[in-house]
Design brief:
The chain has 169 residues and is mostly helical. Helix content is 89%, strand content 0%. The protein has three helices and no strands. The N and C termini lie far apart (190 Å). The relative contact order is 0.02.
Length: 169
């Protein structure tokens, strides 16, 4: 027969009448709140501890397997993304390297043109130097011719005056 609150109450009243209210309360407080079948023994607790430990060990194993799987998936995903990013960076560096190569080629062309201009300027400088020398020589000849012409005019004038004085006039 299961223990109910009503049956516990009746027992408490009977104990009050038999042994007194204080003793009845003390005795009732020592009784389990439910039936003795619901009270756990040390063996029950040991069995529960063993079963709980086994359950926790099994749970730990399953969690370890799941965590390892997830870690492996995450690791593979990270490796994949790293490899994609690495390849993308490599392609960008190749593009930059190609652009630098193009710029280098352009600079080489500019350098060649500058070298050509230097040669042209040097040649022009030599031609100008040659022209200056020729011009100075021509100027010296022109000066000489001018003075020769002046001398010729003076000589002609002297002859004309001499002829006039001699022949008449």
């Amino acid at each position: 027969m299961p223990v109910t609150e009503e049956s516990r109450h009746r027992l408490h009243q009977k104990l009050d009448q038999t042994i007194g209210p204080e003793e009845a309360t003390t005795l009732m407080e020592h009784l389990p709140p439910t039936g003795w079948a619901d009270i756990a023994t040390k063996q029950d607790l040991d069995n529960l501890r063993t079963a709980t430990k086994t359950d926790l060990d099994n749970l730990e194993e399953r969690l370890d397997v799941k965590i390892d799987r997830r870690y492996d998936l995450l690791d593979a995903k990270i490796d994949s993304r790293y490899n994609l990013l690495d390849a993308k960076i490599d392609r960008r560096f190749e593009t930059v390297d190609q652009r630098f190569e193009t710029v280098d080629q352009r600079f080489e062309k500019v350098d060649l043109k500058i070298d050509g201009l230097k040669d042209l300027i040097l040649a022009l400088g030599k031609k100008i130097d040659t022209f200056d020398l020729r011009f100075e020589a021509q100027a010296a000849r022109t000066d000489l011719l001018f003075w020769q012409f002046v001398g010729l005019i003076v000589t002609v004038c002297a002859l004309v005056f001499t002829g006039i004085k001699l022949f008449g006039g």
